[in-house]
Automatic annotation (TrEMBL):
Protein name, entry field: ATP-dependent protease
Domain of life: Bacteria
Alphabetical list of Pfam families matching this protein: LON_substr_bdg
A GO biological-process term: proteolysis
Keyword annotations of the record: Hydrolase, Protease
SMART domains xrefs: LON (SM00464)
The keyword Repeat is assigned to this record: no
Lon N-terminal domain ranges (all copies): 5-189
PROSITE patterns per UniProt: LON_N
Originating species: Luteimonas aestuarii
PANTHER family referenced in this protein's UniProt entry, alphabetically: ATP-DEPENDENT PROTEASE LA (LON) DOMAIN PROTEIN (PTHR46732:SF8)
Amino acid sequence: MTESLPLFPLNTVLVPDGTLALRVFEPRYLDLVRDCGRSGTGFGICLIAEGNEAGTPATPMAYGTEARIEDFDTGADGLLRLRLRGERRFHVVRTRVRDNGLVVADVEWLAADPVVELQPQHALLADMLRSVLEQVGADVAVPEPRFDDAAWVGWRLAEWLPITAMQRQSLLQEHDPDKRLDALLSLIG
């Protein structure tokens, strides 16, 4: 069963529980934010497969993450600034473009990651994450640390490691937390 979800294609990937700062200036996205605020719903963030962030509607990748608005304000430049939090992952079944240029997708929600204990071969990744968290310190709002949860460790590393958007997209599309950690090991190896 599919559900309709407005999309905000970007040149970045949002992961579950991840945060993203976003400036909004195009009318189609200002309307999207207003509608989400009124209805209390989220919208989808997808990496751009083809096109650009502004102007003509971009073609999104087939997997993305639902974003919820955590905070907003107006910047010195007068633009709307949002702080988003990633929630559920989804698979795009089909898209359509509204008259205002907003891309809307029919999506299938993906199952939440199971809570899987971190395996010994992935202990190095938990140690790396601890080090990253010490470096970012109070600059980043970090969810309650769960260093023994394979999915949590994988998502936090996917969010904060300096990897390409396509590498992050590949991790987003992996359904198994242990395989996601194996992929992260190969990226840093």
